[in-house]
Write a structure and sequence with these properties.
The structure is a homodimer. Chain A is an alpha+beta fold. Chain A is built from 16 helices and 19 strands. In chain A, strands 12, 13, 14, 15, 16, 17, 18 and 19 form an eight-stranded antiparallel β-sheet that branches. Chain A has a five-stranded antiparallel β-sheet with strand order 5-6-10-8-9. In chain A, strands 1-2-4-3 form a four-stranded mixed β-sheet. Chain A is globular and about 75 Å long. Chain A starts with a helix and ends in a 15-residue tail after the last helix. Chains A, B: It comes from Ferirhizobium litorale. Chains A, B: Belongs to the FAD-binding oxidoreductase/transferase type 4 family. Chains A, B: Its cofactor is FAD.
Chain lengths: 477, 477
């Protein structure tokens, strides 16, 4: 037999596990699985498998470990760092979770839901709402991202302030290990101190330690009161001071506090259908404030009014509007959630997903603006994000009329400038998107060697054959 | 040189790291470090070291790894499973964290505090209160337990409902690895998705993967409103229904919901100075309800009144009293927190620290009562705890007049009965106290072998010389 024949027979063995109709071999069929949204990564793969059960995933990984075949798990393919994209020039087999999409159980008394790893986030929202509960993870991509990917990237989004990241919304996991063994950690317990925290090790591991095939998610009561306001502000300092007031006043009823710059509002008004500036005059900065209360609608209304009153009195708020209906609330959030898309028609955009301790945000923003503008006069900084979490999407749109390719070619240079300041403030170069391929090499340079060494030891302990999503998060030595 | 001389010289090398005055060699001095509160474990040790800096801890562990010397880290020595006690018949060296007790930094704007691993929890509370902030971990032992131990056991306590376990109250760690290397993970970030979650691996590892010498803790606004009520109830079912109402109404303003049985109240009234029954008639069960609000004192008062009104109307609450002063609130909590101590004068007590999904609590309690009473007629079940977390301290006091030693000899038999039911409900045999020595062998029998195997691989990856708190959590193979 030739090598080609041997290889082709190996692929057949993988296909036999899921059945021919659930395997893609044609380049045209495979193509959508080889790219990600931003177009930064394009990989190669001979085969996409779509298992429908945990047992099928297990059989695939067992065969992969035995034959040393590299595997890339792919959930909703909405990741932003190339973690779900097969490597270029390799033969990684893609395992798509899209058929692993059952809601297994919903228990509104215990406030838990058990789901397959391939459930779409929006479907989880719906299933929770049907029993009058809330699953709070909220992302721009919620119509297509899937729970396994949300867990593997420890997804954040706009509700982290009150409810935490995906890590905090999960009680238990079912994971297929690289060897094909199944770890049943589907516990529904809020308190369980019995040995090492394996759950949190798989969460955020970006599919390099195993494939998450099932999860126990936490549910919450649906809030009775919901208020959204949009406030024009003079400065980032004022935004931080207003956030502190909001945080003290509302506690965990403060479910969102998003910072937006004038240019971001202009971009959305210009390019996103239906978006208009809610205030009559322009302001350098804006805050979108979201309050949800459990006891009554009146509490939310009173809190928002009190907060804005205190903000006006303290000279922190220049102008503000409170949404008067669910449609108006949705419109304000739509503006914020379109802010990334609205940058596309403006040309190239160099992105950063960073966090710093929130007391450092004003200084970081000032320093970064100075450094970026010095390096690239005319750059248009559209830095927005989750102020209350210290998480800024520090995006830089190209100067008007600049050459897009030449601008994008300066990605690493601009990263270096922004990340240098982030690190000087004790911040993170990836607040919520993860490492994937995009930040893999940089991670190794900024972390102490003992930390990289511990991560490698864990990787080797879990995946001795090195087949699980290779070269993501950790590079070859 | 004789072996004795070699060994004595080795001990001298350890002593030299901290200085003679910070080392204990005399049996009388060492004795308090060899026992734990319940008297279940008594170990042996030739030496107690009291390092005052991370560098000293590092030097000790480096020498220990090089010479294969077993080390037991000891924090406040308040653990309940023998995790902090040296092994019997071995020569484990105890490292006490008590001199590692500096508050390193307090930042009320970023809402973080950085502390040494040996800080006493009550001192952390005080330092937070001085800047008008709350550090919410609340335990009976807070006057003597220390942060390193709280983290290593992922401590729970009475405020978990609203604020989470110790795991949820920590942003970053400094850990000395068994090799003596120092991992500086003292990050102050709420969002940081950069690689595997090492932090959560050390938290709850009970000192078997390294020694936690520093931590970044989360602070919260001090609540403005605080209400505590004590309600007499007919049944555990009614307690659960009342909890659901409270949870929906108050959201995260519900900061405590503790279940207590009549016998527990009788024990505390009988044995704890100053405790009296707040209600004029006896009821089979009681709930202690704690509400804290951030916006105003009125909100807490209104919530508590609304909750009790709804409880009366629904027939869930038989009688109730709302504490009218801070002193009355403290008195109600004192009753709850004395419930463990109040069992001591009643003779032997066989303890369980279990959790089940909260929807299963009524059935679990009924089944456990039936099984325990069938096995041991006259047993006095004092099952109390954190209903809202599904966490019950299922304690069994000996029958009146029984022989204490004969009763305690049935510890494992009673464990077997109670834990069997816990596992049947998908519960945990250690909700908050951990594994230590007490539950080590049982853990290995109830967990899938792949889970124990992964834990062992992690242990070997972090502690190749096997010197860190050996035979705790994981036994010798």
């Amino acid at each position: 037999m030739t090598n080609d024949t041997v290889y082709s027979e190996l692929l057949d063995r993988f296909v036999a596990i899921v059945g021919e109709r659930n395997a893609l071999r044609e380049p045209a069929d495979i193509a959508p699985y080889l790219v990600e949204n931003r177009g930064l990564y394009h990989g190669t793969s001979p085969l996409v498998l779509k298992p429908a059960t945990t047992a099928e995933v297990s059989a695939i990984l067992k065969l992969a470990s035995e034959t040393g075949t590299a595997i890339v798990p792919q959930s909703g393919n909405t990741g932003l760092v190339g973690g779900q994209t097969p490597r270029e020039g390799h033969q990684d087999i893609v395992i798509s979770l899209q058929r692993l999409n059952r809601i297994r159980d919903v228990d509104p008394v215990a406030n838990v839901m058990v789901v397959d790893g391939g459930c779409i986030l929006a479907d989880v929202h719906k299933a929770a709402a049907e029993v009058n509960r809330l699953f709070p993870l909220s992302l721009g991509s919620e119509g297509s991202c899937r729970i396994g990917g949300n867990l593997s990237t420890n997804a954040g989004g706009t509700a982290v302030l009150a409810y935490g990241n995906m890590r905090h919304l999960c009680l238990g996991l079912e994971v297929v290990l690289p060897t094909g063994e199944i770890w049943d950690g589907l516990r529904r317990l809020k308190k369980d101190n019995t040995g090492y925290d394996l759950r949190d090790l798989f969460i955020g591991a970006e599919g390099t330690l195993g494939i998450i095939t099932g999860a126990v998610l936490k549910l919450f009561p649906q809030p009775l009161g919901h208020q959204v306001a949009f406030a024009g502000l003079k400065s980032v300092e004022d935004a931080l001071a207003l956030f502190e007031k909001a945080s003290s006043l509302c506690g965990t009823a403060l479910t969102g506090f998003e910072l937006m710059p004038r240019i971001g509002v202009e971009f959305t008004v210009r390019h996103i259908e239906g978006v208009r500036d809610p205030l009559s005059n322009p302001y350098p900065w804006y805050a979108l404030i979201d309050i949800s209360t459990s006891d009554s609608a009146e509490t939310a209304a009173r809190m928002m009014e009190t907060l804005l009153e205190q903000g006006f009195e303290a000279g922190l708020v220049e102008d503000a509007v409170i949404a008067a209906s669910e449609a108006q609330r949705a419109a304000l959030w739509h503006m914020r959630e379109s802010m990334s898309d609205a940058q596309k028609p403006e040309g190239g955009s160099i992105k950063h997903d960073v966090s710093v301790p929130i007391s450092s945000i004003p200084r970081f923003m000032a320093e970064a603006e100075q450094a970026v503008m010095a390096a690239m006069p005319g750059a248009r900084i559209c830095a927005f994000g989750h102020l209350g979490d210290g998480n800024i999407h520090y995006n830089i749109s190209q100067p008007v009329g600049a050459d897009k390719a030449a601008f994008i070619a300066r990605w690493r240079e601009m990263n270096h400038i922004v990340h240098g300041l982030v690190l000087a403030h004790g911040g993170s170069i990836s607040a919520e998107h993860g490492i994937g391929q995009l930040k893999r090499d940089e991670l190794a340079t900024i972390r102490p060697s003992i930390e990289m060494e511990l991560m490698r030891r864990i990787k080797n302990a879990f995946d001795p054959a090195g087949i699980m999503n290779p070269d993501k998060v950790l590079g070859a030595r």
